[in-house]
Request: fold
Amino acid sequence: MSDIEQRFELAVAVAREAGAVARQIYEQPARTRTSKGPQDYILESDAQVERVIRERVLAAFPDDSFFGEEGGGEFGRDVWVVDPIDGTSNFARGVPHFCTSIAFVRDQQIEIGVIYEPILDELYVARRGAGATRNAQPIKVSGIASMREAIVEAGWSMRRPTEAYVDLVDQLYRAGAQVRRAGSGTLGLAYVADGRSDAYCELHINSWDALAGLLLIKEAGGWTNDFLANDGLRRGNVVLGCTPALKDIMAGAVGLNIR
Reply:
């Protein structure tokens, strides 16, 4: 078994373990939450779930780097990039649409992506060059080629002006798409890979929210932008994942030059 396969097996096991912890906390009658900014929650549970992942990963691979949304870390040649609970606002308000995201990156290449949604017990996994699955069943992007048939999720980021988001949504509606926003960029990307949506875009997203989902889309036959360009690993970036036929019009809507 290669070292990537070993890390893949660990990522799958740890995602389920972390998701079980998140679900247990979610089902408690009270969840402690504070605000770290407008529309930006921080929960004690985020840090608790991240500790589970960090401890398991570094116990198995102590020479790897680890970066988590809550605890930070460092970016080395081999780095685990983790969001313990993506969809924190949903989680905090009792909305069952959140997940744990684990990605492994080697030499600026996403090698492993695992996303676990504990409420529906849906486990999305991808390994570079080995395809993508949900609960061990192969998944593919929808193949939709027309914006008039497309369902697009447009994530909102406070790192960009509200006017830019409104303009993006306006362009998508005018192109004929149905537009939604469900509050988890990670699941939004996974749903593109699974054919549940036809595109996901956001004017800025952090790497821990995006990397696992981007690998899923690529391995499911979709198209993604070069998220890691311009130090996207550390700084975040615009993100776009979609069916191949929608890439030109979607790239234009989010301001990407892919020529």
Summary: The CA atoms of residues 26 and 105 lie 29 Å apart. The mean pLDDT is 94.
